[in-house]
Specification:
With 145 residues, the chain is of the alpha+beta class. It has one domain. Helix content is 41%, strand content 28%. Strands 1-2-3-4-6-5 form a six-stranded antiparallel beta sheet. A hairpin with a 2-residue loop joins strand 2 and strand 3. The radius of gyration is 15 Å and the shape is globular.
Length: 145
Amino acid sequence: MEWSKLYGPDNQPSETDIAEYIKSPLWEELNGFLRGSYETEPVLSYSLCSGQPGWNVKYRKAGRALCTLYPMPGFFIALVVIGAKESGEAELMLPVCSEYTQRLYAKTPFVMGGRWLMIRVADEAVLDDAKRLIQLRRPVRQKAR
């Protein structure tokens, strides 16, 4: 069943509901990375956006959006906005990214202050790309030992 129909605006899913709908270890891996590296918690939000309606999971750090995650059956979409400030670094990093991410970046226009990359995270290579792009938004600080 479609995500937005399964969980309507008055039926907020739990984190367990989301994980069971996605059924991908990549989901747990990215959430663990975001929580651990940025010491932040996810915020569930309901969107009526026609492009990706329904409940999504947002991560922010120090008032800045890191990414928004959209549940899909068997995978998820990570929205990462690469703004003008990050675009130079992103373009230098692209050659080490998967072909999928390189094509996505090339075909995504720069609008409203950035490239709004809707990254379909369905394999480990794309997950690694998403993590790298998120770190361009806000680098991970190394913790003192």
